[in-house]
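In this section we walk through a basic example: taking a raw amino acid sequence and producing a predicted 3D structure, encoded as discrete structure tokens. The instruction is simple. Fold the sequence below.
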Amino acid sequence: MSGNQQHRERRRQVNEFYTTSAINKIAYRVDDVSRLLFDKLAHRTSAEGITPFDICHSIKYYAYDAITNVTFGHILGCLEQNSDVNGLMETLAAFLRYGMIVGVIVEWHPLIIRLLQALTPGKNKGLSQLKSIGEDAMKRMYRDPESPAGEKTASGEGHQRHTFVGLLQERHLRDPSTFSRDDVTYHMITNVVAGPDTTSASLNAAIYYLWRNPRVLARLRDELDNWAANQAKRTVASVISMPEAQELPYLQAVLKETMRNFPDFGNNLSRVVPEGGLTIADQFFPGGTVVGMNAFVAHANRDVFGSDADDFRPERWLADQDTVARMEQNFLFVSKNCP
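The resulting token sequence is shown next.
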């Protein structure tokens, strides 16, 4: 089986876990971490004013805590300690940098990885901790898949199966012959490696664009204020659930426009030309050729996104259905199957 075929098969295994219904089962774990973030931000304010701090770091800590809680039912503790716990963030950042480079020169990977392992022994403390957390979660699952995990959340949930690991475990129990424990481990680690970096990059980009565009920030605040006013016993400081957020059109437009202006994947999205070749933009490419499109380039296409494609304007996503559908077809950030 080729590398591309293996990747497709891996994706197919977990498509069901990235549907809205599946995510809604575990999204409350993000809400728990959001409350921690709000508390941390509140402590930065006093009668004397606001204590300056780096919001980018706070959002990064938030993303790592949220993803580890969703995946394992375990909050890593970056927000609480205001630091990179056991170097996990540093380790994964180095891993992602390596992947971005070697992903372009795949044939060099076996040699480079052996050299790095020889030259930098013991530089995997973060990954060791990640593996330990994952193994602990899996032990609880395999000991009794339906038993409480021993911890309670703000929403009253206390079952280990209400995690990404839990969803993977359910899939394994249904058909262990096609979804092994090794598959559970692979997808568990992949979720943590890929999730926090993209999440924090997008959230920080959204904050940046909102502060650079006061008109957009004011309109978004109006939408949130109106939402809070129409909710019994809710305030604008309340955590908005995922289903509720999906019903806020301007918020969704802001998020889409953020990801259009700042897609978090800088490399080309590569594909292999099928057997027999293919003509793209009047250029013939023989079978086996690797071709790709860069999201930053695609998202600046004025024929698709309008003459103001260089601008941050969320309103473009509130246009008529046909216009939005055409933009989404050219929106390389969006994938129905995330992994």
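Looking at the output, two observations stand out. The first helix runs from residue 3 to 14. The chain is about 55% helix and 5% strand. In the next section we compare this with other chains.
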